[in-house]
Write a structure and sequence with these properties.
The chain is α/β, with parallel strands linked by helices. The chain contains five helices and 16 strands.
């Protein structure tokens, strides 16, 4: 499976320009015969909104005009794409990742963990961690701050995810994600992780780039620069991620990252509320 991640300088509140850039990258990926391409969080709108009204102006329904155009490109180039946008639904605003295949919209994921930064101050959090089929491969979506919480990636892993698509707008100060969090989430669940971050400066916030593709053992297969627009590509065998039982020396050195868990000892986590 040939997978990729795009990082680019998102133009704030300029949906048409951002969509044009995304389509250009998508066409490039299609010509390279990629199976899956991941764009950053809020790739169509920008992120550093100062109030809910201006954020709503950039939001759209799913399906909508932007996703309809992306569907056409995905169908033409036989590629699946995950892209971040602002979604409006029944008066609420969501920070959403949409998954689009050559057959149309596969589904969407709404960011579940929110913090006091940018548009996250005005959104409603999602309520589940769905699994999607990408050409016979089980895949899940996370958005930026979700990766701070090991439970989110674990929830996807326990449902059989072989790939996690992590869409981000990581500003300077969040270097831990590219430094070790991305690798930890992949390694602790033995799955592949595609981290698509952005670059550039938006309303005083500088984004740190360093998009990554990471394998099931936590090794970095590809990493982007801190400040350039680019597309990462890596070839993987997602079937490897279905094996959680590792045998290094039969009967002497084996482990299973899921079966060796002790859920009976973790119950206190559910009651540890501040």
């Amino acid at each position: 499976m040939l997978i990729g991640a795009v990082q680019f300088d998102v133009s704030f509140a300029d949906k048409s320009r951002n969509l044009e850039k995304c389509v250009d990258f998508l066409k490039e990926a299609g010509k390279k015969k990629l199976d899956l391409l991941v764009f950053p969080e809020c790739a169509l709108s920008g992120y550093m909104f100062e109030n809910a009204d201006e954020a709503f102006d950039m939001a759209e329904t799913v399906t909508g005009e932007s996703t309809a155009e992306l569907e056409e490109v995905c169908r033409h180039y036989n590629i699946t794409v995950a892209i971040g946008l602002l979604e409006k639904y029944e008066g609420d605003l969501f920070n959403t990742a949409v998954l689009i295949s050559p057959q149309g919209i596969v589904g969407k994921y709404r960011k579940t963990h929110t913090l006091t930064l940018g548009v996250d101050r005005f959104i409603r959090g999602g309520q589940n961690f769905p699994i999607f089929d990408v050409g016979g491969v089980k895949a899940g979506l996370l958005i930026c701050y979700d990766q701070r919480f090991p439970e989110a990636a674990r929830a996807l892993g326990l449902q059989g995810a072989q790939i996690i698509m992590a869409l981000s707008n990581l500003p300077v100060g969040a270097e831990a994600y590219a430094g070790f969090l991305n690798q930890a989430r992949a390694c602790e669940n033995r799955l592949f992780l595609i981290s698509a971050n952005r670059v550039g400066v938006e309303r005083g916030a500088r984004f740190l780039g360093r998009s990554q593709i990471i394998d099931f053992a936590g090794n970095i297969l590809a990493e982007a620069s801190k400040d350039k627009e680019e597309m990462l590509v890596a070839k993987i065998d997602p079937r490897v991620a279905a094996t959680k039982h590792v045998i290094l020396s039969p009967g002497e050195y084996e482990f299973d990252v899921f079966k060796d868990r002790r859920p009976d000892l973790y119950n206190k986590l559910h009651f540890n509320q501040l």
